[in-house]
Amino acid sequence: MTTMTRTALVIVAVLLLVLGLLWVFQRRLIYLPDPGPVPPAGEVIPGARDVTFTTRDGVRLAAWYVPGDRGDVTVLVTGGNAGNRSHRAPLAQALAARGLLVLLMAYRGSSI
Q1: Residues 78 and 92 occupy one common structural domain
Q2: CB 41 within 8 A of CB 50
Q3: pLDDT score recorded for residue 45
Q4: 49 and 98: one domain?
Q5: Sign, CA torsion 29/103/92/87
Q6: Residue 6 belongs to what domain range?
Q7: Which residues of the chain have a pLDDT value below 50?
Q8: Backbone dihedral region for residue 85 (phi beyond 0: left; psi -120 to 50: alpha; all else: beta)
Q9: Where does residue 96 rank: exposed (0-12), middle (13-18), buried (19+ CB within 10 A)?
Q10: Among 6, 23, 80, 104, which residue's CB has the most CB atoms within a 10 Å radius?
Q11: What are the recorded GO MF terms, alphabetically (predicted)?
């Protein structure tokens, strides 16, 4: 076996190892929730309140309800893949300032 062949095999083996590790740990690399507790809604957004609801299959989801002047439109804001609801508070406040009702919620499978 030549040196060139050995080098190519080592490179392929290292690449396969890296790809395998990325595959195994992909959820930890993608989803980065804030590990700390989510503060109460009223502490972050004046007038907001904590709400929870349960899906048909029994999953309990937490949310913040931010009232607005208009009752005909509600904007649903989910937390995304990093942080928690408090990081989306400026968006909720801006939408509520325009009169929109806002529901900032954790998505299914998230504890935030």
Answers
A1: yes
A2: yes
A3: 92
A4: yes
A5: negative
A6: 1-30
A7: 112
A8: alpha
A9: buried
A10: 104
A11: hydrolase activity
